[in-house]
Amino acid sequence: MNTFSKIIIPVFIIFVIFYGFSKKINIYDAFLEGAKEGLIISFNIFPSIIAMVFAINIFLDSNFIYKFLGVLSPLLNVINIPLEIMPMALLRPISGTASLAIMNDIFINFGPDSYIGRLASVLQGCTDTTIYVLALYFSSIGVKKIRYSLGVGLFADLVGITVAFLITMLFF
Fold first, then answer.
1. Predicted confidence band of residue 110 (pLDDT cuts 50, 70, 90)
2. Burial (0-12, 13-18, 19+ Cβ within 10 Å), 93
3. pTM of this prediction?
4. DSSP string, 65-113
5. Domain residue ranges in the chain
6. Residue 82 backbone dihedrals phi, psi, to 5 degrees
7. pLDDT digits (tens, 9 = 90+) for 67-78
8. Residue 99 neighbours by CB under 8 Å, 6+ apart
């Protein structure tokens, strides 16, 4: 598998070059045009990325999430959900990187084969970074009305979080 992964990209590039020659496409000009479009898209989405990073850092540094979860801890104990997983569940729709950092901390503190480690893994796979996707991709193409997309995306994340808890309770 390691050898396959090392040769697949050069083989693909060679295939694209030969395909371009067979279709009589100026490959170099097409590459430059694609690179130019990529730079324009990167320039357009850069403010959205900066805003998301800034907002996430303010949210995490304010310790609001931990104060909020302290209030919910009696309820979480009744339904057997570890308090340590909740920051990941709440931040997953906002930032994949923040949720990965929390999952890494869970792995370090509890181990990947522990109940909470497995729950973090299942949670990571059952949800998406909805708010990040909406902010980044919709702003890059100029979509302004995201109300229904946001509602459906957050509902899907809620279902994913609930299913992650249920699956982990049933199987682990």
1. very high
2. buried
3. 0.66
4. HHHHHHHHHHHHHHTT--GGGHHHHHHTTT-HHHHHHHHHHHHHHH-TT
5. 47-171
6. -65, 135
7. 788 888 888 888
8. 88, 91, 92, 124, 129
